[in-house]
Every structure is written in structure tokens, then in C-alpha cells.
Amino acid sequence: MFSYIIRRVLQSVLVLLVTGLVAFAMFRFVGDPVDSMLGQERTMQDIERLRENLGLNDPFVMQYWNFLGRALQGDLGISYRQGRPVAEIIMERLPATLELAAVSGLFALVLGIGLGVFTAIRRDGFAANAIMTLSLVGVSLPTFLIGILLIYLFSVELGWLPSFGRGETVDLGWWTTGFLTKSGLIAIILPSITLGLYQMTLIMRLVRSEMLEVLRQDYIRFARARGLKERTVNFRHALKNTLVPVITVTGLQLGSIIAFAIITETVFQWPGVGLLFINAIQFVDIPVMAAYLMLISVMFVGINLIVDLLYVAIDPRLRTEGKS
Amino acid sequence: MKRLITATAIALCLAPAAYAETFRWASTTDPDSMDPHAANSAPVLSFLNNVYEGLVRRGRDMAIEPALATGWEAIGEGEGWRFTLREGVSFHDGSELTAEDVLFSYQRASSEQSDVASWFATVSDVVVVDDYTVDFLTTTPQPIFPDSIANFMIMDSGWAAANDTETPARDAENFATLNTNGTGPFMLIERQPGLRTVLEPFGGWWDTVEHNITRAEFTPIENSATAVAALLSGDVDMINPVPIQDAERLSASDGVQVYQGIEARVIMLGFAHDHEVLYAGSTPGAPNPFSDVRVRSAVAHAVNVPAILQTIMRGSSQPASQLVGPDMRGYSQVNDARPALDLDAARALLAEAGYPEGFSFGLSCPNDRYLNDEAVCQAVVAMLAQIGLEAQLNAMPVANYWPELRADNFDMYLLGWSPGTLDAEHPIRFLVHTNGESIGTWNFGGYSNPRIDEMLPAIQSTIDEEARQALLDEAAGIIQDDVVYVPMYVEPLIWGTGENIDLTQRSDNFFILRWVTVN
Hints:
The complex is a heterodimer of chains A (324) and B (519). Chain A is built from 14 helices and two strands, in the order H-H-H-H-H-H-H-E-E-H-H-H-H-H-H-H. Chain A has 324 residues and is mostly helical. Chain A has a domain at 86-285: Orthogonal Bundle (MetI-like fold). Chain A has a two-stranded antiparallel ribbon. Chain B is α+β, with helices and mostly antiparallel strands and 519 residues long. Chain B has a domain at 35-175: Dipeptide-binding Protein, domain 1 (Alpha-Beta Complex). In chain B, helix 9 (293-302) runs antiparallel to helix 11 (343-352) and helix 14 (425-432) packs antiparallel against helix 15. Chain B is globular. The two termini of chain B are 31 Å apart. The interface between A and B is large, with 51 and 55 residues.
């Protein structure tokens, strides 16, 4: 068991290092930051001096090595664009992304499970069929289109919800939250629906098919035969047994919610790390890009590691295999 | 029900009145810094013009007018300029403006870390004569020096010293990156980079207040569709820019209006003058035809600029005949005509140059720098095909574009140029003069003409207006005859506002808050 954990952790660190190396190899293709940092009246010496100062003349492996060295000391560098420490900028932006991800994850989970159960129980009903058809639309429309459609419907036509931004936020010192103000709560509705819609339909379809599978099992029939109430059968016995794969998928999807937030954040001008990353690409702000990519890969690798370890904890069969 | 709708409609119309004086505006780019000497970029200088002020400033018509200096005069025979400072001007923190602050700001702005040091390339010394008189001494006569420092913003020396921000910095955090202390009409109240920047009027401002804003909030909105939606829904009062394709729809919508003008930026085609061989196309390595003026001239006669303006720019722009637009100082009236659209003449020129069948080459183009830049290049490709020139379009993001041009990886390219000094000398200095370390730095094609090189210092130092214009006319004539570039059009400027907003649109695309009225 212990050696299994050590092995998985070492693998994760290796994955992280390789991701970073690939990222740094790619940065040269994003463009040259020097042009966006200097005004049009720059001289050739200015360009050379800046390239030298930023270490852009070094081979990328060297740049990566320097980045790692500083990152291990907690220094993520200075943003080329803003001239401020990257760690500070990311910490400013992270709460917005995490709150958005949390709300849309919750939205996807609650509505996905609810509708999944409903469509499974009423599998031939009109409502269930309508929901299934609509969910196809939800899966096939691209996120930015859904976002723009929602903005035009709810902000421009109806005027109910703000068209962009995060509303007023409350600064708790180490965290800024939009949950404590009315404008903040209103502002999160459209982006979280946009971001969570795909995951919602995914969970819904998963729950539905698992549920249909379980409802065919013998023990459900016996439960019905015992004369248990329909609700008890559906929720106590059937739903509970469909949740194992749902939890796995949800865990893995949490990472992609944060990663896919880039598009939603751009459409809604949501001031999170995804928007920061898009800006960084346009400006070739290498320190910000590097920090963001490392953050995302740490997160993905971390989630996968936890999921792997959870399997071992949950499933006794894996443990015995590990021993033998 | 009907009454309810009417009541709602009335309430909606009245609602903005309650917040009338809070003005919210959005633009695609957030200013990188609040430090007026750290970045020589339009978003930064435009924004900070509301907070900081220079010795001189530009009025609604772009003309230079007194700001922190009440007057200025040339010293002797062009040894420099003497500025007389306005008395009784105070900074936002209450300290008084003196000549020491001007000297300090000069030192800060011309330091190695500064991005605006080029404005002072010819300044040899700055001398404080008394508390309200400063001399800027120059190495050569500089007739347009006052014009060229309209964006040189004065910072309080005491404040800078107290907050340890005496030099601008881009590779370290600096107090002035997030905080300001200017003399301008607005004070910085809140600065959250990339999120929101809030300004409020400065009660102690020296000039007469013309606006009626009590609070102004700026938000960057990158996605243009979101910005248009925000304007339509009334979440913001002004957006810059409005996407060209949305301008018509917006002007037809209720509650919004579109301000349309032309910018100082001229969009042009450039050529590889000094390349031996072609870089791209189906025959890379073949001799470079663009070093022949007849080939360049053929291109000029084949590009149908009115058609581009009508279809791609939707009639929002004006054709350009030279490297600056007609509003700029030193524009050459005698060279006002564009080459005529004449495909037969173009084919004849190609045949004369030895390319009766045309040839294939690469056209490089940015796809995120100028308005509809890639679409314009596609149109140029189609137009050149009519005279047998097969252009292979190579469009890329601007972050890759300049390095490619610097590496000579092009045959023909698209370039936009906005003269920082709003003077015709500027593009000659950067685009036409033989390329070197600090001048000719944007002359990617390597055009070189001894007459131009000889004229540039004369243009820069001639004080007599008529003699100077004669030189500029001659230069503009040479540039047209040699077809150094093919100027196509002046980029349009399209802003959208709520219908209750009055503002002044200036052709340098600076948005000046003190001219905004919310009705």
C-alpha cells in the first residue's frame, strides 16, 4: 500500500516536470514579448537589452530550469504585462475561478442527478423525452455560443441579469468573494449555467443509463415485490448504487470545469485565472502563462492522484491485488 | 398588463437618471500600468491623461494648448525651449507643482528603465531657472518639441521619493504601478488590474470643469460581442471600439448611438526592397521582383482601396495617399492624389519589368492587430490575382508578426502606423529612413534613399514652417514616386455610447473623461 502511494506520487511529479518542459518549449511559438512591452519608438538596443534582462536569449531548457529554481523558492516571477508578482496576480484571480467552478459544479451535480433520475423513472414520458432531446442541444452547442445567447436573452432583451463581470465583491483579506453581495450572486448565475451545462448533461445521461441498468436488477424487483414504497425503491436502493461511477466522473470533471472556464470567463469578462491566461497569451506574458499551466497541471495531477488513492481506499479488491 | 409594461418601460428609462453622474466605460485593453513613464502605449497614455497632465496638452481638435505650462518660447536660435509653469497648481495629495517636479519627471522619464525616453533623445539638459520656469536644452533645433511632449506627464517629486518610486520599472513591482499622484481632473480611487479602475473628480483641479461626472468606472471587456451586449443592456455607458460589423446595427438600436471618426493610423502595404530573393510563394528563392519600382507601382495601381473600404470597412474609413492622414501636421497637400485604379497600366508595368505572366510571392499579415486586418489582406490577394500576381497569404497573431518581419521573413506585408507626434516627420523617421539602431527601426523592407536620409535632420530642425513644409512635400513626393509603401486607408474610429452621453472623439483614439457629459 505504502509503496503504491510513493510510486503514484513520484509518477505525478514526473508528469508535472514533463508538462512544464513541453510548456516552455511551446512558448517560443507564442511570439515575442518584447514587442508588446516596448513602445513603437523603441531602439534596437532597447530590444536587445530587454531580451537579455528577461533571459529570452537563453535556450528554453535553461529558461525552464531557472523558472523551476525560482518557483521552488516560491518566486513565480514578475508579469511582463503588469510588472507585478505573478503569485500575487494569480491569488487575486483564483477566487473568482474557484467560486465559478464550485457553483457550476454544484449546478451540474444537483440538476444532473435530479434530471437523470427523473428521466430514468419516467423513461417514456413526454417530459423525459423532451429533456433528453434538449440535453443533446446542450451538449452540441459550443460554450461561447451558449454564453452569448444567454447574455442576449437575459441581459439585453429581458434586462434581468448583468451582461458581464463579477458584481461587487467582499474582500476577506485572503479571499475575495462574490457570494456575500446581491450583485455578486446575480452575476454568477449566467456564467455558471454556461460553464456547467455540458457537465450537467453528461451527469444526467450517466445517471439515467446507470439507473436504468440498476432498475433492471433482481434486488429492485424483490424490493418492489416486498411492497416497499416506490420512492424508497428508487432513491434508497437504486440511486445509491448508481452513484459510484457518478462520483468518479464528477471528480475528474471538476478539473476540466476549471480548465474550460477559460472560454466562459472570456465571454462573461469573468475576472478569473482563465481570462488572465488568455490575456497572457495575447501579450506573450511568459511568467503568467508558465504559472497558470503549472497550476492547472498540479491540479489535474493532484485530482487524479487523489482519485487513484480513493479507489484503493474504497475498493478492497485493489488492496488485495496490491498485496499479492 | 399593458399598464405594467408601460410602467416598467418608464421605470427603465428613468432608472439611468438616478445614476446619471456615474459613468462606466469599457475597452478591449486594460492599461498595463498606472505609471506614466513605464509604458509608451496608447491604452496607458490615454487612460493616464485623465489623471496626470503634461506641460502642454491636446485640445478637442488635437491642437497643442497650455496645460501645466502657461506659455513656452524657443531659446535663442533653437538651443531649446523655455516653459513657464502655471502657478497655484496642486497635486492630488495637496503638494504644489514647482519646476523641481518637472525636472524630476524629466529625469524619471528619460531614465534607462523608462519606455518614453525616446521623447527626450535630443534633450541635452533640463535647467530649473526659478520655481516656475524650466528650460529644456536640445542638441539641435527642435521646432516640434512642445508637440512631441504632450504625453510627458508630470509626477510629484516628493511623493515619488516618499514612496520609493523614483524610477519607473517593468521588471519589478513599483508603488507607481498601482498608485498615482497627478495634477489632472480625476483622481485614482481604486485600481484592480484587469478588473476595475475607478476615478473620481479632483476638487482642486486648476481648470474649469466641463464634465458632470462624479465617479467613473473603467472595465476591460476583451470579447467584442460581450462589450456590445453590455452597452445594449445599459451595463456600461460607452465602449471602444465597436466592431465594424456591429456599427450599423448599433446605430439603429434604441438607446445607443455610435460615434464615428478616423484615427491617426494609416494602413499600408510594405515591400521587401533589399531582399535578393523571394521568401515565400510557389517559387521561393527566385529573384525578388519588389526591388523594381515598376512592380511596386503595379501593385499600387491594382489595389482597389474604395472597394476595400466599402465592403470590409463598411464605409467607415477614408482612403490615404501618404503615410499620414490629412489631419496630421505636415500633411502634404500637393501629394494628395492616390495612384489611380488601373489594371491595364498595372499589367503593362509588370510586362515592362519582365513579368508579363506575373509571379508568386508571400503576403504577410497580422490577424489581431488592426481592424479586420486579415480580411483586408484577403481582399488584396484577390485584387492582385487580377494582374497575375499570386499572393500566398500568411496571417498570424501580432505577437509572432513583428519577430517574423524583423527576421526578414516576408515579401510583402501589411503595416499600420500611427505617428506618435501627430506629425509627418514621424513615419519618415521610423519607416522610410535607412534602418539603423534608433531610426528607421520599422523600415523592415530596407528601403534606403540618401536624399531622404539627408532631409530628415533638416526636417527635424527647420523652424520656419514654410521651409519645413517644402521639405515634407519633397519627401512625400519621393515616397510616392518610389512607391516605398502603398498607403491604403486611415483606420476608422468607432465608439458606442448610451444616447444620453455627449463626448469628444479625438483622432488619436484617446478617451478624455473631462469632455464627457451625462444627460
